[in-house]
Amino acid sequence: MTVYMRAGEIAKKPVVTLAGDDIGQVKDIVFDSSTGDIRCFTLAGRGLLSGPLHRALLWRNVHALGPHAVMVRDESALEEDDSAATPGEDERAGVNVLGVAVTTRSGTQLGRVTDAVVATGRKPAVAGYEVETAERERVLLPVAGPITVSGERILVSDATAQHSAGNLGGFGSAVEGLRHRPVHDPQED
Amino acid sequence: MEWWTWLIIALAIFAAVTVSIAALQARRRSGGVIAQGRRPRGGGGPES
Q1: Would residue A70 count as lying in a domain?
Q2: Are residues A121 and A77 in the same domain?
Q3: pLDDT of residue A25
Q4: A96, B40: Cβ pair inside 8 Å?
Q5: Per-residue pLDDT tens for B3-37?
Q6: Would you tell me how many other CB atoms lie within 10 Å of the CB of residue B30?
Q7: First to last CA, chain A
Protein backbone atom coordinates (compact mmCIF):
# COMPACT_ATOMS: atom_id res chain seq x y z
CA MET A 1 0.00 0.00 0.00
CA THR A 2 1.32 3.42 -0.95
CA VAL A 3 1.47 5.97 1.83
CA TYR A 4 1.54 9.62 0.86
CA MET A 5 3.25 12.26 2.92
CA ARG A 6 4.19 15.87 2.43
CA ALA A 7 7.83 16.59 1.67
CA GLY A 8 7.67 19.17 4.46
CA GLU A 9 7.12 16.30 6.89
CA ILE A 10 10.36 14.67 5.73
CA ALA A 11 12.44 17.84 5.78
CA LYS A 12 14.08 18.49 9.13
CA LYS A 13 13.61 14.89 10.23
CA PRO A 14 16.69 13.66 12.10
CA VAL A 15 18.85 11.06 10.40
CA VAL A 16 19.58 8.37 12.95
CA THR A 17 21.77 5.26 12.75
CA LEU A 18 20.57 1.87 13.95
CA ALA A 19 22.98 2.35 16.86
CA GLY A 20 21.00 5.43 17.86
CA ASP A 21 23.47 8.11 16.78
CA ASP A 22 21.93 11.32 15.52
CA ILE A 23 24.10 12.24 12.52
CA GLY A 24 22.18 15.00 10.79
CA GLN A 25 18.82 16.16 9.59
CA VAL A 26 17.17 16.24 6.18
CA LYS A 27 17.60 19.55 4.38
CA ASP A 28 16.64 19.14 0.70
CA ILE A 29 14.73 16.41 -1.07
CA VAL A 30 16.18 15.90 -4.55
CA PHE A 31 14.07 14.15 -7.18
CA ASP A 32 14.21 13.35 -10.88
CA SER A 33 11.66 15.51 -12.69
CA SER A 34 11.32 13.03 -15.56
CA THR A 35 10.30 10.11 -13.35
CA GLY A 36 9.46 11.76 -10.04
CA ASP A 37 11.79 9.31 -8.26
CA ILE A 38 13.49 10.57 -5.12
CA ARG A 39 17.23 10.54 -5.72
CA CYS A 40 18.67 11.63 -2.43
CA PHE A 41 18.49 13.96 0.52
CA THR A 42 20.94 16.69 1.35
CA LEU A 43 21.64 17.08 5.03
CA ALA A 44 22.26 19.75 7.62
CA GLY A 45 24.00 19.31 10.94
CA ARG A 46 21.95 18.85 14.09
CA GLY A 47 23.30 21.68 16.20
CA LEU A 48 21.59 25.05 16.26
CA LEU A 49 24.66 26.72 14.82
CA SER A 50 25.57 24.01 12.32
CA GLY A 51 25.01 24.54 8.62
CA PRO A 52 24.76 22.23 5.62
CA LEU A 53 26.75 18.99 5.94
CA HIS A 54 27.64 18.80 2.23
CA ARG A 55 27.06 15.05 2.36
CA ALA A 56 24.19 13.47 0.46
CA LEU A 57 22.10 10.52 1.56
CA LEU A 58 21.06 8.36 -1.39
CA TRP A 59 17.62 6.82 -1.09
CA ARG A 60 19.04 3.32 -1.58
CA ASN A 61 21.03 3.82 1.64
CA VAL A 62 17.96 4.71 3.69
CA HIS A 63 17.04 1.83 5.99
CA ALA A 64 13.60 3.17 6.89
CA LEU A 65 11.61 6.36 6.67
CA GLY A 66 9.67 6.56 9.90
CA PRO A 67 7.24 9.14 11.25
CA HIS A 68 9.91 10.69 13.45
CA ALA A 69 13.26 9.90 11.83
CA VAL A 70 15.10 8.69 8.75
CA MET A 71 16.96 5.55 9.74
CA VAL A 72 20.27 4.52 8.22
CA ARG A 73 22.46 1.53 9.03
CA ASP A 74 25.46 3.61 10.10
CA GLU A 75 27.31 6.78 9.19
CA SER A 76 28.87 5.10 6.14
CA ALA A 77 25.42 5.35 4.53
CA LEU A 78 26.16 9.01 3.87
CA GLU A 79 28.09 9.93 0.74
CA GLU A 80 31.47 11.56 1.18
CA ASP A 81 30.18 14.71 -0.56
CA ASP A 82 26.97 16.10 -2.01
CA SER A 83 27.83 15.46 -5.66
CA ALA A 84 24.84 13.11 -5.89
CA ALA A 85 22.64 16.14 -5.34
CA THR A 86 24.29 18.19 -8.07
CA PRO A 87 23.13 17.90 -11.68
CA GLY A 88 25.00 15.73 -14.18
CA GLU A 89 26.61 17.06 -17.36
CA ASP A 90 23.48 16.54 -19.46
CA GLU A 91 21.16 17.98 -16.83
CA ARG A 92 20.11 21.49 -16.02
CA ALA A 93 20.62 23.06 -12.61
CA GLY A 94 18.27 21.82 -9.93
CA VAL A 95 15.13 23.87 -9.36
CA ASN A 96 13.51 24.29 -5.96
CA VAL A 97 9.86 23.76 -6.81
CA LEU A 98 8.59 25.48 -3.65
CA GLY A 99 6.98 28.75 -4.69
CA VAL A 100 6.97 27.88 -8.39
CA ALA A 101 3.73 28.41 -10.36
CA VAL A 102 1.85 25.35 -11.62
CA THR A 103 0.33 25.84 -15.06
CA THR A 104 -1.57 23.48 -17.32
CA ARG A 105 -0.35 22.91 -20.86
CA SER A 106 -3.29 24.95 -22.12
CA GLY A 107 -2.11 27.90 -20.01
CA THR A 108 -4.33 27.87 -16.92
CA GLN A 109 -2.47 28.81 -13.77
CA LEU A 110 -3.47 26.49 -10.93
CA GLY A 111 -1.50 28.09 -8.12
CA ARG A 112 1.92 28.14 -6.48
CA VAL A 113 3.62 25.13 -4.96
CA THR A 114 3.68 25.16 -1.17
CA ASP A 115 4.80 21.55 -0.74
CA ALA A 116 5.33 18.31 -2.65
CA VAL A 117 3.53 15.04 -1.98
CA VAL A 118 5.80 12.01 -1.78
CA ALA A 119 4.59 8.46 -2.35
CA THR A 120 6.67 6.41 0.08
CA GLY A 121 7.53 2.78 -0.37
CA ARG A 122 10.25 0.75 -2.01
CA LYS A 123 10.65 3.34 -4.75
CA PRO A 124 9.53 6.69 -3.35
CA ALA A 125 8.58 9.39 -5.80
CA VAL A 126 7.04 12.82 -5.95
CA ALA A 127 3.43 12.03 -6.80
CA GLY A 128 2.02 15.55 -6.75
CA TYR A 129 2.12 19.01 -5.31
CA GLU A 130 0.27 21.02 -2.73
CA VAL A 131 -0.56 24.35 -4.34
CA GLU A 132 -2.07 27.54 -3.02
CA THR A 133 -4.64 28.82 -5.47
CA ALA A 134 -5.40 32.46 -6.23
CA GLU A 135 -8.26 32.15 -3.71
CA ARG A 136 -5.72 31.22 -0.99
CA GLU A 137 -7.08 27.69 -0.92
CA ARG A 138 -4.65 24.77 -0.65
CA VAL A 139 -5.28 21.75 -2.84
CA LEU A 140 -3.26 18.66 -3.67
CA LEU A 141 -2.63 18.07 -7.37
CA PRO A 142 -1.44 14.65 -8.54
CA VAL A 143 0.98 14.38 -11.45
CA ALA A 144 1.36 11.48 -13.86
CA GLY A 145 4.26 10.91 -16.20
CA PRO A 146 7.11 13.29 -16.90
CA ILE A 147 6.51 16.94 -16.06
CA THR A 148 8.28 20.03 -17.31
CA VAL A 149 9.92 22.04 -14.54
CA SER A 150 11.62 25.35 -15.08
CA GLY A 151 12.67 27.97 -12.59
CA GLU A 152 9.37 29.76 -13.15
CA ARG A 153 6.73 27.12 -13.60
CA ILE A 154 5.74 23.50 -13.60
CA LEU A 155 3.73 22.41 -16.61
CA VAL A 156 1.15 19.72 -15.93
CA SER A 157 -1.53 18.10 -18.05
CA ASP A 158 -4.90 19.80 -18.35
CA ALA A 159 -6.55 16.83 -16.64
CA THR A 160 -4.60 17.49 -13.43
CA ALA A 161 -6.99 20.24 -12.33
CA GLN A 162 -9.93 17.83 -12.51
CA HIS A 163 -8.25 15.35 -10.14
CA SER A 164 -7.33 17.47 -7.16
CA ALA A 165 -7.75 16.46 -3.52
CA GLY A 166 -8.34 18.52 -0.42
CA ASN A 167 -6.20 16.36 1.85
CA LEU A 168 -3.83 13.40 1.84
CA GLY A 169 -6.70 11.03 2.63
CA GLY A 170 -8.24 11.66 -0.76
CA PHE A 171 -4.98 12.02 -2.63
CA GLY A 172 -4.68 8.33 -3.53
CA SER A 173 -8.03 8.45 -5.31
CA ALA A 174 -6.96 11.60 -7.15
CA VAL A 175 -3.77 9.86 -8.33
CA GLU A 176 -5.73 6.81 -9.51
CA GLY A 177 -8.28 9.04 -11.24
CA LEU A 178 -5.55 10.87 -13.13
CA ARG A 179 -3.69 7.71 -14.09
CA HIS A 180 -6.77 5.93 -15.37
CA ARG A 181 -8.44 8.87 -17.08
CA PRO A 182 -9.58 8.44 -20.64
CA VAL A 183 -6.95 9.96 -22.90
CA HIS A 184 -8.18 12.05 -25.80
CA ASP A 185 -5.28 14.36 -26.44
CA PRO A 186 -1.88 12.85 -27.26
CA GLN A 187 -0.23 15.99 -25.86
CA GLU A 188 -1.56 15.04 -22.43
CA ASP A 189 0.88 12.15 -22.27
CA MET B 1 25.30 60.94 27.15
CA GLU B 2 24.10 59.15 30.22
CA TRP B 3 25.42 55.66 30.95
CA TRP B 4 22.00 54.10 30.43
CA THR B 5 21.85 55.56 26.91
CA TRP B 6 24.99 53.62 26.05
CA LEU B 7 23.49 50.54 27.65
CA ILE B 8 20.35 50.82 25.50
CA ILE B 9 22.44 51.31 22.37
CA ALA B 10 24.59 48.30 23.23
CA LEU B 11 21.52 46.15 23.90
CA ALA B 12 19.91 47.27 20.64
CA ILE B 13 23.05 46.37 18.67
CA PHE B 14 23.26 43.00 20.44
CA ALA B 15 19.59 42.27 19.65
CA ALA B 16 20.01 43.25 15.99
CA VAL B 17 23.10 41.05 15.59
CA THR B 18 21.36 38.11 17.32
CA VAL B 19 18.28 38.39 15.10
CA SER B 20 20.46 38.66 11.96
CA ILE B 21 22.49 35.58 12.88
CA ALA B 22 19.32 33.62 13.68
CA ALA B 23 17.75 34.62 10.35
CA LEU B 24 20.93 33.74 8.43
CA GLN B 25 21.19 30.40 10.20
CA ALA B 26 17.54 29.60 9.51
CA ARG B 27 18.15 30.37 5.84
CA ARG B 28 21.24 28.14 5.72
CA ARG B 29 19.38 25.23 7.29
CA SER B 30 16.10 25.63 5.43
CA GLY B 31 15.51 23.05 2.77
CA GLY B 32 13.60 22.64 -0.42
CA VAL B 33 12.29 20.14 -2.91
CA ILE B 34 14.77 20.12 -5.77
CA ALA B 35 13.80 18.92 -9.25
CA GLN B 36 16.64 17.65 -11.39
CA GLY B 37 16.51 16.31 -14.89
CA ARG B 38 17.29 16.92 -18.50
CA ARG B 39 16.46 20.26 -20.05
CA PRO B 40 12.79 20.52 -21.02
CA ARG B 41 12.11 19.58 -24.61
CA GLY B 42 10.82 22.31 -26.89
CA GLY B 43 11.51 25.11 -24.42
CA GLY B 44 8.37 24.45 -22.39
CA GLY B 45 5.98 24.58 -25.33
CA PRO B 46 3.50 21.89 -26.29
CA GLU B 47 5.13 18.49 -26.28
CA SER B 48 4.45 15.72 -28.69
Answers
A1: yes
A2: no
A3: 92
A4: no
A5: 999 999 999 999 999 999 999 988 888 888 999 87
A6: 13
A7: 25
8 Å CB contact of A44 and B35: no
Decide if A68 is inside a domain. yes
Q: Do A28 and B28 touch (CB under 8 A)?
A: no
Between chains, do A94 and B35 touch, taking CB under 8 Å as contact? yes
- Which B-chain residues 3-42 have CB contacts (< 8 A) with chain A? 25, 28-41
Q: Is residue A186 part of a domain?
A: no
Q: Does A101 touch chain B (CB under 8 A)?
A: no
**Number of domains into which chain A is organized:** 2
CB contacts of B36 in chain A (<8 Å) are: 30-33, 39, 87, 91-92, 94-95
- Residue A95 covered by a domain: no
Residue A29 and residue B33: Cβ atoms within 8 Å? Answer: yes
A72 and A105 housed in the same domain? no
pTM, two decimals, is: 0.79
d(CA A50, CA A111): 34
Tens of pLDDT along chain A (189 residues)? 788 999 999 988 999 999 999 999 999 999 988 888 999 999 998 887 788 888 999 999 999 988 899 999 999 999 988 887 777 777 777 889 999 999 998 899 999 999 999 998 888 899 999 999 999 999 999 987 777 888 788 998 888 888 888 889 889 889 888 888 766 555 554
Beta strands A70-72 and A62-65 are antiparallel
Identify the domain containing residue A28 by its residue range.
4-85
Does residue A120 share a domain with residue A51? no
The end-to-end CA distance of chain B, in Å, is 75
Beta-carbon contacts of B10 under 8 Å, excluding residues fewer than 6 positions away, are none
Q: Which of residues 156-185 of A touch B (CB under 8 A)?
A: none
